[in-house]
Amino acid sequence: MNYNEVFRIGRIGKPHGVKGELTTHIDDDVFDRIDADYVVLDVDGILVPFFFDEYRFRTDETLLVKFTDIDTTDEARRLTGCDVYFERRLSPSNEGSTLSWAEMVGFSVYDENSRQTVGHVKNFNLSTINTLIEVVTPDGGELLIPVADEIVGHVDVEKRQIIVALPEGLASLNG
Asked: What is the model's pTM?
């Protein structure tokens, strides 16, 4: 399994209780869209599937998770800080539903006007009135692109690409 086959949905927090349960912070609504049997954790740079004995929501963005064969606080503590991923092939978006923001992180961004790739999606900033695409440019800079109908044309899932029509001067505003 490699990073192109998964998308990040959260991070493991601290242990909860004494039987191996973990607090897990979730950035994506994948659990609202599908009943998952497992997630994939990045353990020291290696993607490892972890199956659930059970999980339950503590808040809208926090799960309490009990993984199979993680039965003590010490075992659970070893997973603290691990990024949590979900397999793209299991996502409901493969069945025609809309992609989540998290699923598009890593996609390339192609500008129809310049006919060039302007970079790769680093993240989506949802903290402003208008959602912004945070793009890392080939030279290591950052470009913020508003998610607006007149700018974002479409998403090509197979090519893992977001097609945009950048207004003249937008790149220089960010630079």
From this structure: 0.67
